[in-house]
Design goal:
heterodimer; A: mainly alpha; 10 helices; 77% helix; B: two-stranded antiparallel ribbon; 2 strands; 67% helix; globular
Chain lengths: 196, 211
C-alpha cells in the first residue's frame, strides 16, 4: 500500500509539479521546433515517452547493477548516451518496419530524439534523486514522458491559435513562443508545494 | 595571396560565431542550458567556460578523425567523443569548484546533448581542417558564453539587484533604498520571458540595419 502511494505521488509530481519542460528547462529544442501542430506534437510526445521509459529503466539497471558494483561511475555519461542512442536506433528500426507511414511523417525528428535533453536529463535525475527501486525508476521515467507530451501538446494548441494573432513583427516565431512558455510556466508554478 | 585568403577566412569564421551565426540568438541552439543556468552571472560564466572547453576539444578531435567517420555512425561517434570531454570537465569542476558543481547539477553532464556542440561537429568540424575547426569552436564558444552572461546579468540585476554578487541597485530595506527585487526574474518565468524579449530585440536590430 505504501509503495503504491509513493509511486502515485512520484508520478504526479514529475508530470505536474516538477514538469521537465517548465521547471527544469529540458527538451526545449523540440518544444520550440516541432510544436506547430497538435497531431505531430502528440506523435513526437509518444515517441519520446517510449524512448524515455526504455532509456530510464535501462540506465537505472546499468547504473545500479553494473557501474556501482564495479566502481566505474566515471563511465556513467558515456554509458548513458550509448544506451539512449541504442534505444532510439531500436525505435527507429521498429517504426520503419511496422509503421512506414508514421516513419515518413516523423522524418528527421526521430533520430534527433537522441539529442533530446529531456531523456539524458531524466536518466541523470534518476541518479541524482537516488531512486532506490527499479519500479520507482520505471514509473518516474514514464511520468517524465507523459509530462513532456502534455507540455508539447498544450504548446502546440496555443501556437495553432497564435498563428491567427497579430504579433509585433520582431517577436514573431521563437520570441513569442518563449514568452508564451514563460506564462505557462508561471501557471504551472501554482502546483508547486502541492507535493513534496 | 593564399595566406591572405586564409586570414580573411579565419577572421570571418571567428566573427560569425559572435554575431551573424550566434548559437543562441540566431541559430536557437543550446536553449536548455541558456535558460537553466542564467539566474546569476557566476554559474552562467562557469557553464560558458565549460562549453568552450568541450567545444574546442570535440571540434579538434572530430576534425582529426573526419576521414574515418562512417555516415550512419557519425552522430554516435560525435556524442561519444563529446561525452568523454564532458566527463573530464565534470570531474575537474567537482574537484576544484565543488560549490559550482553542486549548483549547476545535471546541467554540466547535459552539455553532451547541447545542440551547439553537435551542430558544430556536424556542419564544421567534419568538413574542415584543424585550424578552421579550432577557430570556429572558439568563436562559437565565445558567442555562447557572452549571450549567457548578458542574459544572466539582466536576470540577476532585476531579480536580486546584484551583478556578479556585487550590489548595484540599492535594495529596499531598513537602510533605505528604493529597488524592490523582482523575484520572478530568477524563477523559470524570468528565463523564458527575458530570452524571448532579447530575441525580439535582436530581430529588431537586424531589421533596422538591413532596411
Amino acid at each position: 500500500m505504501e509503495t503504491l502511494q509513493v509511486l502515485v505521488l512520484g508520478f504526479l509530481s514529475i508530470v505536474i509539479v516538477n514538469n521537465l519542460v517548465f521547471t527544469k528547462f529540458l527538451g526545449i529544442c523540440p518544444y520550440l521546433g516541432v510544436s506547430g501542430r497538435i497531431d505531430m506534437a502528440f506523435g513526437m510526445g509518444c515517441a519520446v515517452t517510449f524512448v524515455v521509459t526504455l532509456a530510464g529503466t535501462l540506465t537505472w539497471m546499468i547504473d545500479h547493477w553494473v557501474l556501482r558494483v564495479l566502481g566505474l561511475e566515471v563511465m556513467m555519461y558515456v554509458c548513458f548516451i550509448l544506451v539512449i542512442a541504442g534505444a532510439v536506433q531500436l525505435v527507429e528500426m521498429y517504426v520503419r518496419k511496422f509503421f512506414p507511414a508514421l516513419y515518413e511523417s516523423f522524418g528527421i525528428f526521430l533520430p534527433l530524439i537522441t539529442t533530446n535533453c529531456a531523456i539524458l536529463g531524466l536518466c541523470l535525475f534518476l541518479n541524482l534523486w537516488d531512486t532506490r527501486r527499479l519500479i520507482e525508476a520505471v514509473v518516474l521515467s514514464f511520468g517524465a514522458g507523459v509530462g513532456f507530451t502534455m507540455a508539447i501538446c498544450i504548446m502546440a494548441g496555443i501556437r495553432e491559435t497564435l498563428q491567427l494573432a497579430d504579433v509585433p513583427a520582431c517577436l514573431r516565431g521563437a520570441p513569442i513562443t518563449l514568452i508564451t512558455a514563460g506564462l505557462l510556466s508561471l501557471a504551472f508554478m501554482g502546483f508547486a508545494g502541492m507535493i513534496r | 595571396m593564399a595566406a591572405e585568403g586564409m586570414t580573411t577566412r579565419t577572421s570571418r569564421t571567428f566573427v560569425a560565431g559572435l554575431w551573424h551565426e550566434n548559437p543562441v540568438l540566431r541559430l536557437l541552439l543550446g536553449m536548455c542550458p541558456t535558460l537553466a543556468v542564467t539566474a546569476a552571472v557566476k554559474p552562467a560564466l562557469t557553464m560558458g567556460l565549460s562549453v568552450i572547453f568541450v567545444l574546442v576539444c570535440s571540434n579538434v578531435a572530430v576534425s582529426l578523425m573526419r576521414h574515418l567517420l562512417k555516415p550512419h555512425l557519425r552522430i554516435l561517434m560525435f556524442t561519444l567523443t563529446i561525452a568523454t570531454f564532458v566527463t573530464i570537465a565534470d570531474l575537474y569542476l567537482k574537484a576544484f569548484l565543488p560549490e559550482m558543481s553542486e549548483r549547476l547539477g545535471p546541467y554540466i553532464p547535459l552539455i553532451i546533448v547541447n545542440c551547439v556542440i553537435i551542430c558544430r561537429a556536424e556542419t564544421c568540424a567534419s568538413k574542415n581542417g584543424l585550424w578552421i575547426s579550432l577557430v570556429d569552436a572558439v568563436g562559437m564558444g565565445l558567442g555562447f558564453t557572452l549571450t549567457l552572461c548578458v542574459l544572466a546579468a539582466i536576470r540577476e540585476l532585476l531579480g536580486t539587484g546584484m551583478i556578479f554578487e556585487k550590489p548595484i541597485l540599492p535594495v529596499a530595506g531598513p537602510q533605505g533604498g528604493w529597488f524592490v527585487p523582482w523575484t520572478a526574474m530568477i524563477l523559470p518565468v524570468g528565463a523564458f520571458i527575458t530570452l524571448g524579449l532579447l530575441l525580439g530585440g535582436v530581430n529588431l536590430i537586424t531589421r533596422r540595419t538591413k532596411g
